[in-house]
Design goal:
InterPro entries: A-D-PHexomutase_a/b/a-I, A-D-PHexomutase_a/b/a-I/II/III, A-D-PHexomutase_a/b/a-II, A-D-PHexomutase_a/b/a-III, A-D-PHexomutase_C, A-D-PHexomutase_C_sf, A-D-PHexomutase_CS, Alpha-D-phosphohexomutase_SF. The protein is α/β, with parallel strands linked by helices and 452 residues long. Helices cover 36% and strands 21% of the residues.
Length: 452
């Protein structure tokens, strides 16, 4: 029988349950994953999706039939699998999640020893082939499943990134969006002085308030209204598996993740002079400017968590960030966290009495305005990329780290194709010129759409 592996992507597995991801696929992954990473001990967990427990049961059956000792940390966020993998020194970790996809989806993310990511170039293609092939014989030793609550160890590790004693009783709107962050925030609250205004705290795989993905403007309204209504100092929202957090200032204005990257880079460089910071090429002038002014070394890397994590390890970067609100930390095994960033912001706010969130970011937002990522459906992405390069490449400085980036004296753009769809993604950035930003964005969109 042919096994449907269409859910395998570039960085993880995602599909509709039970059509393209189901118990049969989960079992086969369990049987073959130990071969990929020579695993004897694997940590597993799931987010709040309804299909998670059934998929995890099948996955664990496959792992134990392969002779693995399975540590099940239960319902959790993706970064808790990262943490458990390096903290408990397991040979690998598997998180059952579909992040911000609709509720009918589910998927898996994989890491090996040390929480190193597994993507297409680091083993995911091999895993796919193993799953499609004949399963190996069952182990003569059946592995065991151990339930382990790692919440307290995880929370204490996350809190170690800030000086809790210096935090002030600021008012924070917290919105997990009925995702996995709610229970963790309840535990963290015991150790923090903050006044939490809580929204959508109960984990619910039916997503009664909509799928939590605050990158989409229509998913921000609840947080914005609450910040204004309760006159909060800041609003914070998370996606379903809380590996990303999203910041709103005291007026309810959404702060683009790009500016958070620069902010966190500065914070780390002030504590670690001369450190290396990794960023992605979609928009980066603000980050590079901040890193250089603070004596750091900026390194630009292709976007995507497997690329960023590898580059950070290669150059021993203390921090890396993407405009998509993924933030990576060396002391977190170079993994991304949706809990560490907001704590660092709160630490600075606590040490700057009278300063509000909007003041932390206003100057940089005015200095380097951005278009935001604009997706365009096209018939032939490669042809569009070539046409744009032919038109602009000779006039500016070209980079092909990720798609094509072209830089001019006071503006730049990045154009790249989607890994999974016939889409072209455009980002434009200028230096202190919103009018030029609008002009060049419209100009590029006209060229792309005429080609598409």
């Amino acid at each position: 029988m042919k096994i449907d592996t269409s859910a395998f992507g570039s960085y993880d597995i995602r599909g509709v349950y039970p059509e393209t991801i189901n118990e049969n696929l989960a079992y086969r992954i369990g049987r073959t994953f130990p071969l990929l990473v020579a695993a004897k001990k694997v940590v597993v967990g799931n987010d709040i999706r309804k299909s998670g427990p059934a998929l995890k049961q099948a996955l664990c059956q496959g792992l134990t039939d392969a002779g693995c000792h399975v540590i099940d940390i239960g319902q959790c966020g993706t970064e808790m699998i990262y943490f458990a993998t390096f903290f408990l020194e397991t040979d690998g970790g598997i998180m059952i999640t579909a992040s911000h996809n609709p509720k009918e989806y589910n998927g898996m993310k994989f890491v090996q020893k040390g929480a190193c990511p597994i993507g297409n170039s680091t083993g995911l293609c091999e895993l796919k082939k193993l799953v499609e092939g004949k399963l190996p014989e069952k182990s003569i030793y059946t592995g065991r499943i151990e339930a382990y609550d790692i919440t307290e160890e995880y929370v204490q590790h996350i809190l170690s990134y800030v000086d809790v004693e210096k935090l002030k009783p600021l008012k924070i709107v917290v919105n997990p969006g009925n995702g996995a962050a709610g229970p963790i925030l309840e535990v963290m609250e015991k150790y923090l002085p903050f006044n939490f205004v809580k929204l959508a705290m109960d984990p619910d795989g039916n997503f009664p308030n909509g799928v939590p993905n605050p990158l989409l403007p229509d998913k921000r309204e609840m947080t914005i209204k609450a910040v204004c209504k309760f006159q909060a100092d800041i609003g914070i929202a998370w996606d379903g598996d809380f590996d990303r957090c999203f910041i709103f200032d005291e007026k309810g204005t959404f702060i683009d993740g790009y500016y958070i990257v620069g902010f966190l880079a500065q914070e780390f460089l002030q504590k670690n002079p001369g450190a290396t910071i990794v960023c992605d090429p979609r928009v980066n002038w603000n980050t590079i400017d901040i890193v250089k002014k603070n004596g750091g070394v900026p390194v630009v890397c292709k976007s995507g968590h497997t690329h960023i994590k590898k580059k950070m390890r290669d150059v021993d970067a203390i921090y890396g960030g993407e405009m998509s609100a993924h933030h990576y930390f060396r002391d977190f095994a170079y993994c991304d966290s949706g809990m560490i960033p907001w704590l660092l912001i709160m630490e600075l706010l606590s040490q700057a009495p009278g300063v509000c969130v909007s003041e932390l970011f206003r100057e940089r937002m005015e200095m380097y305005p951005i278009s935001g990522e604009i997706n365009n459906k096209v018939n032939d992405p490669e042809a569009v990329l070539k046409h744009v390069e032919d038109k602009y490449g000779s006039m500016g400085e070209v980079s092909k780290i990720d798609g094509i980036s072209v830089e001019f004296e006071n503006w730049r753009f990045n154009l790249r194709k989607s890994n999974t769809e016939s889409l072209i993604r455009l980002n434009v950035e200028t230096y202190r010129d919103r009018e030029l930003l609008q002009e060049k964005t419209a100009e590029l969109l006209m060229l792309i759409r005429n080609d598409g």
